[in-house]
């Protein structure tokens, strides 16, 4: 069989990374192999994100670049999947008439069939998306968004010892700026029996680290066979899986960081001591306009509680700058919060108005772009300073690193030097690079840290010298 070639480009969050992994796996079964260039691909797929305008622009320009390629190779199948497919639907065909497929995040299981149909019937465009949040009965809307979690094929994962496991789809929080609830649909939790079974299967195939995925992962709850499960119960159940070494989860919602969740993380050794709990802003007025559902006092209380119970826990956040009406004073309150909480790191975004959201309908996007940029840079500079100081606390210390693979930038080496620069993460999600041997990928290694900047710590493998015990042959007798 001649292999068909698939080019896939993914933007957006971990949900999209997982979706792409599953789509690639399903197409590999159909005889596809990956190619890094669109030029020789039979099928070109984009897995898209709508969270900010920039993410959409990137995909529309990539599509623009394919116009001529499609003219020259009309049987190249071009598909747009994911959140922008759900949001823009037919608009994608209008803007790029040579696109063959538009497939929402709830229809990804259909991709192999849709690609086959597109190949057999060139020129026929296909649109497969979920119902909008007001387009029918709740149950049918929910069903139309059900996600794509087929049984895994271990050889298809990018790294065999790490895996994402989706525990929740959609979101019901409706923060006023956010498009996710409308493109990913209502919040739905997967049953614990399915999650645990998937984890067991992954671990039996060599997986050591599982990352649970959900937009507000700690809000997960599910009643199964009469038992009401909370997120903490799920953590305890997964912790029992023999062979699992690390249990991570993203993203947490501040208000749902209840005592039982923190207790579970503290008490379960396999749980990474890392919480991504976006605060979004430092001012109560802005939080209210964003409809985040908590005050800064409540966020601070949650943060203090986490730090009190787990002094080594690493907390990270997301922030939006330049949201509707943000004054300089309010922006400075975000700066104050970052100074006070000293996050391990923060992801900072300039507010991007998303059509169809509450804030687009009701609140002016009135902070000028230069101001957004300046605030973004100011906050980033502060966060970098904190991150660097925070990482430097590790100088001279020994950390346990799960080795993920070669680091992105390999240093120049003398000829014949077999060392490779590897990267991995600590239990508190800090990135460590060190010289090692590819054999060490997938292992947990002791690393001594000798340097650190805001984003990376540099270290060396600790070689344990086992001093042979000197056993005296004859105990001298005391005279
Ligand atoms: N579910 C997660 C985050 C999902 S989106 C949570 O609730 O925290 C990831 C991040 O993108 C958000 O935390 C927010 O900081 C940012 N974001 C979402 N919508 C945005 C918008 N319209 N403009 C700018 N940033 C946005
Ligand atoms: Fe968006 Fe808010 Fe839901 Fe996060 S919690 S996905 S920011 S609506
Ligand atoms: Fe983007 Fe969709 Fe994730 S909008 S952030 S890819 S859920």
UniProtKB/TrEMBL annotation:
Q: Which reaction does it catalyse?
A: N(6)-dimethylallyladenosine(37) in tRNA + (sulfur carrier)-SH + AH2 + 2 S-adenosyl-L-methionine = 2-methylsulfanyl-N(6)-dimethylallyladenosine(37) in tRNA + (sulfur carrier)-H + 5'-deoxyadenosine + L-methionine + A + S-adenosyl-L-homocysteine + 2 H(+)
Q: Which UniProt keywords apply?
A: 4Fe-4S, Cytoplasm, Iron, Iron-sulfur, Metal-binding, S-adenosyl-L-methionine, Transferase, tRNA processing
Annotated [4Fe-4S] cluster 1 binding sites: 13, 49, 83
Subcellular location, in the record's words? Cytoplasm
The terms under GO molecular function for this entry are: 4 iron, 4 sulfur cluster binding; metal ion binding; tRNA-2-methylthio-N(6)-dimethylallyladenosine(37) synthase activity
Any note on cofactor binding?
Binds 2 [4Fe-4S] clusters. One cluster is coordinated with 3 cysteines and an exchangeable S-adenosyl-L-methionine.
Relate the protein's function as given in its record.
Catalyzes the methylthiolation of N6-(dimethylallyl)adenosine (i(6)A), leading to the formation of 2-methylthio-N6-(dimethylallyl)adenosine (ms(2)i(6)A) at position 37 in tRNAs that read codons beginning with uridine.
Q: What name does this protein carry?
A: tRNA-2-methylthio-N(6)-dimethylallyladenosine synthase
The scientific name of the source species is: Pseudobythopirellula maris
Encoding gene, per UniProt annotation: miaB
